Amino acid sequence: MKLSPIVALLLICSAASLSQAQQPREWIPEAVDALRQRASTKTEFTVDHSLLVLASKLDPGNGDFRRAIAGVNGISVHSYHFPGGGTYDPDALSAVKQEYKDAGWTQLVNKHDLNKHDKFAEPGVTELWIRTENRAISDVAVLVAKESDVNLIVVSGSLSPLDLFHLGGHFGIPKMAGGAPIPNPEGSQ
């Protein structure tokens, strides 16, 4: 039996609302709320394991991606847009970093691109934190802040660094190379 796209979308949305009611959300630093309050546009969603598996079936030829999904419990995406450049509070970004540090997370990437002499370089911040349990990665948080956008993506589950690499480019997770996001050809993340 083939489902129409509308019926499939309704089933996915119903499953999402049920799973969010049953599953606790990933831990997000309280300082993220300060960013949320000042943003002119906010996009936030959480996808649980069952929806990730369903989404991975949309790309059946990508076995690496499907293997990475197997260990992921959920993904939370928090995307904020601010009118004009630099209108988010840099102290809020510092507070987010401090909360991750205080909660025992390890920062792996701390890239601040402030080169104003390069006309192709966009000022921004890219930070990556991990939390480990029993010497395995249990959570990953990626913060990408540009001139008028701040994006926080949190992935929870049993992950290897290679899994994180394979998740790049999906669910709002930027593709990374050398500690920096790879720009999307369309210019959006």
Structure description:
By secondary structure, the protein is α+β, with helices and mostly antiparallel strands. The chain has one domain. It is built from six helices and eight strands. The protein has a six-stranded antiparallel sheet. Strand 5 and strand 6 (149-159) form a beta hairpin. Residues 1-11 and 17-24 have low confidence and may be disordered.
The helix/strand series, from N terminus to C terminus, equals HHEHHEHEEEEHEE
Helix content: 25-40%
Write out the strand line-up for the largest beta sheet, numbering strands in chain order.
1-2-6-5-4-3
Q: How many domains make up the 3D coordinates?
A: 1
What best-fitting shape do the alpha-carbon axes yield? globular
What quaternary form is this?
single chain
- Count of DSSP-assigned helices: 6
Termini separation (Å)?
35 Å
Overall mean pLDDT: 75
Which structural class best describes the helix and strand composition?
A: alpha+beta
- Whole-number radius of gyration? 17 Å
* Strand element count: 8
